[in-house]
Design brief:
- The protein is globular.
- The termini are far apart.
- By secondary structure, the chain is α/β, with parallel strands linked by helices.
- Strand 1, helix 1 and strand 2 form a beta-alpha-beta unit.
- About 35% of the residues lie in helices and about 15% in strands.
- Bound molecules: flavin mononucleotide and adenosine-5'-triphosphate.
- The site of flavin mononucleotide has 17 residues, from strand 1 and strand 4.
- Its EC number is 2.7.7.2.
- Homodimer.
- GO terms for molecular function: ATP binding; FMN adenylyltransferase activity.
Length: about 140
C-alpha cells in the first residue's frame, strides 16, 4: 500500500485542483490531503471559506481517500501520523523540495518528495485559480 500526501488551501474548487489531486492519486494507492489552516495562509489573501468547509469539499472528491485539516503549528505532525511514501507538491507551490527532504530526513521520515504537473486551460476562459474566480465574482457582481 503506497500512501500519498497532497496539500493546499483549496478555497473554491476548480479543475486545476482536480487535476493536481488526480495526478497525486495516480502516484500511489491511497491519497491523503492536508488542508492548510486559514491562519497559516500568509503568502496570499486569506481564504474566503472556513477550514472545515474546505476540508469537507476536498474529502468529497472521488480521488481523495482522506482529507485532514492541517496542524496549526507544525506541518510535520500530520505527516508523521499519516506516514506517507510520497509527498506530491503542487506545480506552483512555493515550498522548496530540498528543504522538505532535509526536514523529513532530520525527523527520520523515509518519504519521497515530487511535484505534480500543471493543468493548462482546455477551453476559452477556463478559470484555474481560486484567486481568479474570486476576482471574477468581484468584477461581475459588485
Ligand atoms: C508537506 C506539507 C505539509 C503541510 N502541512 C500543513 C499543515 O499541517 N497545516 C497547515 O496549516 N499547512 C500545511 N501546509 C501548508 C499548506 O498546505 C500550503 O502549502 C500553504 O499554506 C497554502 O499554499 P497553497 O494553497 O498556495 O499551496 C503543508 C505544506 C506542505 C508542503
Ligand atoms: N491549474 C492548476 N493545475 C495544476 N495544479 C493546480 C492548478 N491550480 C492549483 N493547483 C494546485 O492545487 C493545490 C492547491 O492550490 P491552491 O489552493 O493554492 O489553489 P489556487 O487556485 O492556485 O489558489 P490561488 O488562486 O489563490 O493562488 C496547489 O498544490 C496547486 O499547485
Amino acid at each position: 500500500m503506497r500512501r500519498v500526501i497532497a496539500q493546499g488551501t483549496f478555497d473554491i474548487l476548480h479543475p486545476g485542483h482536480v487535476h493536481y489531486l488526480s495526478d497525486a492519486a495516480a502516484m500511489g494507492d491511497e491519497l491523503h490531503v492536508i488542508i492548510a489552516r486559514g491562519e497559516n495562509v500568509t503568502h496570499k489573501p486569506k481564504p474566503i471559506l472556513d477550514d472545515r468547509q474546505r476540508c469537507d469539499m476536498v474529502a468529497a472528491l472521488d480521488v481523495v481517500d482522506e482529507a485532514h485539516l492541517g496542524h496549526p503549528d507544525d506541518i510535520f505532525v500530520p505527516i508523521e501520523r499519516i506516514a506517507p511514501d510520497v509527498i506530491v507538491l503542487g506545480y506552483d507551490q512555493h515550498h522548496d523540495e530540498e528543504g522538505i527532504r532535509a526536514a523529513l530526513e532530520a525527523r527520520e521520515i523515509d518519504c519521497e518528495v515530487t511535484r505534480a504537473t500543471p493543468r493548462e486551460p482546455e477551453y476559452d476562459d477556463e478559470l484555474l485559480s481560486s484567486g481568479r474566480i474570486i476576482d471574477r465574482i468581484v468584477e461581475r457582481r459588485c
